[in-house]
Amino acid sequence: MGDRPxxxxxxxxxxxxxxxxxxxxxxxxxxxxxAVAALITACTAFxxxxxxxxxxxxxxxxxxxxxxxxxLVRVQSEATVDxxxxxxxxxxxxxxxxxxxxxxxxxxTPVLGRTASVTTVHGDIPPTGPIVWRExxxxxxxxxRGTCPDAAGQILVSEADVDNFGLAxxxxxxxxxxxxxxTGVRLEVVGTYAPRDRTWWQEETLVGMSSVVGGTDxxxxxxxxxxxxxxxxxxxxxxxxxxxxxxxxxxxxxxxDGVLALGDRLDELADRLEDExxxxxxxxxxxxxxDSVREQTRQAHRTVPLLVAPLAVLAVFVLWLVxxxxxxxxxxxVAVARLRGRGRAGATGVLLLELLPVLLPGVAVGAVxxxxxxxVARALLPGAEPFEVGVGYAVAxxxxxxxxxxxxxxxxxxxAREPLDVLVRRGRTSSRRWAVGALDAFLLAVVGTGVLAFxxxxxxxxxxxxxxxxxxxxxxxxxxHLATPAASVSGRWLLRRGxxxxxxxxxxxxxxxxxxxxxxxxxxxxxxxxxxxxxxxxGERNRVNASQHEAGAPVVLRVxxxxxxxxxxxxEEVDPAGRRTTPVMISRDTLAVDPExxxxxxFFPRGAPTADxxxxxxxPDVEPVTLTGTRFALTVRTGDGAVPEDALGADAxxxxxxxxxxxxxxxxxxxxxxxxxxxERATLVGEDDACAEGCRLVALAxxxxxxxxxxxxxxxxxxxxxxxxxxxxxxxxxxxxxxxxATFIAPTSGAPGALRLELSxxxxxxxxxxxxxxxxTVPTLLPTGRRDPLGLxxxxxxxxxxxxxxxxxVVLVPSMPRRSALVDLDAITRGSDFSAAAHVEVWLDxxxxxxxxxxxxxxxxxxxxxxxxxxxxxxxxxxxxxxWSLALGAVVGPAVVLIALLVLLVLAxxxxxxxxxxxxxxxxxGAGRRTTRGLAVWAQLPGVLLALATGVAAGTVGxxxxxxxxxxxxxxxxxxxxxxSTAWPAVLAVAAACFVVLPAAAxxxxxxxxxxxxxxxxxxxx
Amino acid sequence: MRGLAIRTxxxxxxxxxxxxxxxALSGVDLDVAAGEMVGLLGPSGSGKSTLMSLVxxxxxxxxxxxxxxxxxxxxxxxxxxxxxxxxxVGLMLQGAVRNLLPNSTPADxxxxxxxxxxxxxxxxxxxxxxxxxxxxxxDGDRPLGDLTxxxxxxxxxxxxxxxxxxxxxxxxxxxxxDHAARDRVLAALTHVNRTYGTxxxxxxxxxxxxxxxxxxxTIRDGRIGGEGRSGEEYAVVTADGFLPLPGHARxxxxxxxxxxxxxxxxxFEVRAEER
Lengths: 1022, 275
Fold this sequence. Notes:
The complex is a heterodimer.
Chain A: H1 14-25, H2 27-65, H3 68-71, E1 72-78, E2 80-82, E3 85-87, H4 92-98, H5 101-105, E4 111-119, E5 128-134, E6 141-146, E7 154-158, H6 159-165, E8 172-175, E9 185-195, E10 211-213, E11 219-221, E12 225-227, E13 239-248, H7 256-276, E14 280-284, H8 286-329, H9 331-339, H10 344-380, H11 391-416, H12 420-424, H13 438-455, H14 467-496, H15 500-511, H16 515-551, E15 555-559, H17 564-574, E16 581-587, E17 590-593, H18 598-601, H19 611-616, E18 626-627, E19 631-638, E20 655-662, E21 667-674, E22 681-687, E23 695-703, E24 710-721, E25 724-725, E26 738-739, E27 743-749, E28 754-761, E29 767-769, E30 778-783, E31 793-795, E32 801-810, E33 821-824, H20 825-829, E34 838-844, H21 850-859, E35 864-869, H22 870-878, H23 881-886, H24 889-924, H25 929-938, H26 941-962, H27 984-1011, H28 1015-1021
Parallel strand pairs in A: 5-12, 7-9, 17-33, 30-32
Antiparallel strand pairs in A: 1-13, 1-14, 2-3, 4-5, 4-13, 6-9, 7-12, 8-9, 10-11, 15-34, 15-35, 16-17, 16-34, 18-23, 19-22, 19-24, 20-21, 20-23, 23-29, 24-25, 24-28, 26-27, 27-28, 30-33, 31-32
Helix pairs in contact in A: 1-10, 2-8, 2-10, 2-11, 2-24, 7-8, 8-11, 8-16, 8-24, 9-10, 10-11, 13-14, 14-15, 14-16, 14-26, 15-25, 16-22, 16-24, 16-26, 16-27, 17-21, 24-25, 24-27, 24-28, 25-27, 26-27
Chain B: E1 6-17, E2 20-32, E3 37-41, H1 48-55, E4 63-68, E5 71-72, H2 78-87, E6 89-92, H3 106-119, H4 127-133, H5 149-161, E7 167-171, H6 179-196, E8 199-203, H7 207-212, E9 215-220, E10 223-229, E11 232-234, H8 247-252, E12 259-264, E13 267-272
Parallel strand pairs in B: 3-8, 3-9, 6-7, 7-8
Antiparallel strand pairs in B: 1-2, 1-4, 4-5, 9-10, 10-11, 12-13
Helix pairs in contact in B: 3-4, 3-5, 5-6
């Protein structure tokens, strides 16, 4: 026997009561409650924490990748000279004073300066270039000769200027000013310099500009001349003279709010300066960074809640379920409280006293968990800024706590408000399983309306993103309500046919009050898991698509100039088989490629052309006519038609030219002479050295000064080069028919060895007859979405439009915009010269080849201007909020499965006694152990399997419907790179995981229950 | 606190079950004087527990009135009923654990039950004193799970009387107890009745228990079927003049039997007519 009760404790202690209950007697339930409260809080609080971490990473990435121009903040005052007089630029120190203290605090050390553009007044080609003063500049250059300027008019020049313009130290220079008519300002070179410390100079270009360009349009430029401030003061104003203060945004310690606030403050400052003085300008590109942060943050505010909110709602639902079980278990305590004179409020208080001390620590655990998750996320995301917690975190924790408390109060009130006679009654009240409750009906109506709007496309934008969750919820509610009566009917039917286990299993499924809830939860959980993982994988696929499309190939080298033959020669040396490199020409929206090597090197993320399509864009399989020599002769016989006329109808002369292309791609015209009069014959001769090393015949051109109309036939034959007869096509099939608005040239059969051309031309442009080697229309592969109702033309490599015909479609033309064309390089270049509208690129399938290719190109005088790498672009897309927010799917997917597991666990823990007793009754009535175990194992499986199948289907359908609205990329793509189709391998993997883990858990719970089905259970329940 | 009297008039209670209604009580008139100790007897389903629940304010009657002391329980507000149960009426359900906070001790249960009385400013005894009164003084701080069934029942008694109620209603307080435990529980209830003047009404099936009670009321078919006083069985004439036959007379006077009342020397003689 124990001791007498403590005399000190005369009053009831709620704390002792709560502690005993939570820690002494219901540890399992306490753990479940704590875990669910923690989960709810973690889900709710993690969203703003992760959002913040993403913003930090984004700011870090953007600032780290930003160039100096984007980080430079410059307040500039410009001197003006007009009819009213001269207005000098403001003092840089005054400009610095205009920068508010808080803004200046986030910028680096300002550099004050003055700049102007000066041109010398003497010399054959007077050089132009900047003259600059920067406060303290002498400490940031190496003075190579002479001394740093210390008086007005003294300048430092580069060694290149010494070489190009003879500006040795001691040389006087006179430069023009902004005011015409003045004699200029005298400067004196006091030394030479080389820049150092590019950061201090804020990446300003000082040298490398010094040059002299001769030819018909000669020009010269000098490097920056460094001087002292006094040079700008007191004298005449230089051309484009400005004063400024400039500083770079600090990137090391600037947080998200700091950057955004700085952007806003700079906008305000810009407006203020503009209002105060029209000559003042704030120059900064930081707005691009802040705009990007804001835009991507908006994206995150759509995607993160999309993934996390359903998880939190599901967790709240599970909390409701767990609390329902917990309060149900405490009916006895509620009854005692009511018997002892506590009212409903008092009984509710007793429940809350027991539950809240467990749940609120769970909230704290979840809050800490969210912080830890945020810290992990911050560590995984790029950037070095320490982890921050914003106000959103506190609000989210508070929201979670409120949700937990309200849910607990609701669950407690639900039991405590029951009439006392119901509370004290033994056993549970029967539930009306067939009836649809008012809450269910309301939920079904609301959710059904939402789903209808979602499926019919009425929901758009962010609202559409809740569609999958609504669809899953509707499916879960419906399947729960339909499956239970159906299971009961099926169970009875099976029992009548002697199928004991199957019949009882289905009857049990239909009879259990928790079946409907379980099915709804499992449906929603599996749907969310499918959706989250599908979104993750589809997002990854689309970022790869976008990266591949933007890059075109693993590495792309853009070369200067249009030496296609040189490029080809270089590539042949590095990659003789032509399997890993390919030359490409781009002319505006036309991508010209080599169909042999290009498919092996280029990315086609949304499907490559077929082999037939590649063959279809090939040019005509005709050999070109190669001419090598300098003297050309062609026999021409003009038909009996009309004499050529000029634009006024007077007789005119028409000429005949040979049009050829040289190996370099340049197109040349070789004039042969005037066509003989009608009915006459002549041999026309021309001389040109364009084909001294060989060229290709592109066309016969009929010309006339100021335009000429020809309606006649012309027989041409006997093409000779340097007196040698040339084999060339003379049959009609070997020449194209030219048919345009002003020209019709039809090749027909002439005398043997002669080509007859029926001409009907007018207008001022030469009329050309081209051999079949030159494609009349360019065979083209077009992007799927391109439509050309007015006729298809593509941009030729000479910059002019060329008629084209579509021979196939491809979703994306690598690296090209939505309206583009993919053509054969050979086809588009036949007979055409190259213009500045086009440029040449080299596409490589291996970054390791870059060095060799660059060297090989350099040997041939081809310079690489720019290198584009797939990996760089890929990383750029990876370091975006769109990618990071979808990465949550990797957390949400497993989390919802865990929640579903928790539900199964809770239901097993709260219901095992009743089930064990039922099984024990069966055992007493003769059922074998194997039978009862089978019944226990299968008790929940039909409902679980049906719910999972429904959930996977709902998740897949929901994903398919919602995915087009999910922002996968930081900005909407210009080309259709996004492929929102279902990622079936991922969906099947998630489905497999759900179908293995959850039924296994249900079966294990059944096995454990079956073990408890002993005879004494029957007695216990009596 | 003095005991509270009970008065019921025309008490009717009908349970509404699925598809049909069941009359549990069909006009019960019962008077229990303050400080009395009364046993309610009767077969299962006769309405004993229903009567207890109506008196304790757990159920509201379909018709009729219930008074506990001066309070008309049948018309009291829920708040008044809560106050009544918290201070003046102790209600003990059948099965000890249904009256106790499960994860606790007898002493804590006593303390818990005293809270309403303390809040209303009433003087309540020390929990140790209450436990001593029922003979559970040494087991007060032991977890309920460690107690014997008899001790559990005593703990339930202790919790029920903890605020010194004027009326103690006990439903089958001695069922499923061995004789020793039964006697300890009965002794505790008798102690409460005699020491504090508490009116005690208990439902029992146990004839041994009924035998020691000064007064028993038998409920039969939802009516007062008879009374026992000091070992003597009486039939009770109802307010509307019905006279339920005692059990042994029922066997001899089956339903439909015509009887005639004869007054002989100041006594009534009941004589069945031959058919």
